Amino acid sequence: MEVNSEIDPRTNRYTELALEEATKVGADHVLLVLDTFGGALNDADEIRKRLLEYPKPVYVFIDKNAASAGALISLACDSIYMAPGANIGAATVVGADGQAAPGKYQSYMRSIMRSTAEANGRNPHLAEAMVEASVDSTLSAGQVLTLTTSEAIKYGFCDGVATNVDGVLAELNLQDAEIIRYELSTANKIVSIFLNPFISGILLLVIIGGLYFELQTPGIGFPLLAALVAGVLYLTPYYLTGLAENWEILMFVGGIILIVLELFVIPGFGIAGISGIILTVVSLVLVMVNNQLFDFTFVPSDNLMKSLIAVVIGMVGAGVMIALTWNRVLNSQSMQRMVLKNTFDSEEGYRSANTAAHLVGKTGVAHTRMAPSGRVMIGNTLYDAQARDGFIERGDAVQVVDHSTFALRVKRIEVQATSGEGLA
Predict the structure, then answer these.
(1) Across-strand partners of 374?
(2) Whole-angstrom Cα distance, residue 56 to residue 59?
(3) pTM to 2 decimal places
(4) Kind plus residue range of the DSSP H or E element containing 358
(5) Which of 157, 163, 364, 404 registers the highest number of CB atoms within 10 A of its CB?
(6) Sign of CA dihedral 189, 243, 43, 309
(7) What does the pLDDT look like over 279-314, one tens digit per residue?
(8) What is the CA radius of gyration of the chain?
(9) Residue 45 CA: distances (Å) to CA of 82, 278, 335, 338
């Protein structure tokens, strides 16, 4: 397995997957090809523990650099091989500004460097000197130890020199062994693609735009589905690589819930809506950076800025997209097929609720047979109605006796004939 970049959650996950694959295929030996200037201490510590606990021999080939976190990882391996001109050491813990971190971090780093060296039979005092000068080193006060290839061999930190992987295998008498080079699967490569801040910005655009369109046209479903899919694609890669913590995801979900409550439950736009927006934006920013519960000591300022820019661009892009496409979406043929365009006229018997009180006592004619529901004509207007008792035939005279939310209640009445009616 090869690590030739910064030690971070992605590297951490890569080594975990590689060792799982080594176990799966039954590898007898593991060789780590390393070239790094360091990275996150918490991720390096997890890799260190993983290497120390692995049941099969693990070797490291330092191809030029194993600085800081790289030195810690190297010490966790059973044997160290270095290329000519390589270096190992300079493990002082630094903050985002490049300056030495507070003493508690240095103390912890000295401790794990010392214990890791002891676990593999190396000089613990020299390992500690890579963090801070110790009495057993030849360094001046304030300096830290960095060893060249020849110096590492002299002090027992390096087991051999090689120019490439084949040279290391020859040193280990494994030149005839079957070699399996670990590569990320297609799925994991796709995960890495979605970790790109540019892709994250596009997904944010879809999330925000989809939520807006769904809130404006509830019931359609597609905008909400698009937002949910984009949300999964946004959060899952960061969660798998360890960047997105559970509390950050809960913060994001909580922000969305507050926004929905503000829109549909709580009248006006106040504390809930503003809090929801703040929680959502903050969570989206934090998901992209390797902070430890709001501790940004080891988060480079440029990483934090990239995350913030990606979120802002996503939101601004969503706003621009909504402004440019809203009218087109509403007037599109697809939208017109989903939007109710029929009108319900009072002349056809439709009416709003609680507007029929003035009709109580009025008389009319059954416009349809009522068994028991139907329609009646009162004046020149049709109304939905229900027979209070039995059935009413079409043409029978009726009188309104009551009204409900959506229909009149009527009874049949007898019409008195005039004196001239009924004569031959």
Answers:
(1) 385
(2) 10
(3) 0.60
(4) none
(5) 157
(6) positive
(7) 877 887 777 776 666 665 555 566 667 667 767 776
(8) 38
(9) 22, 33, 54, 56
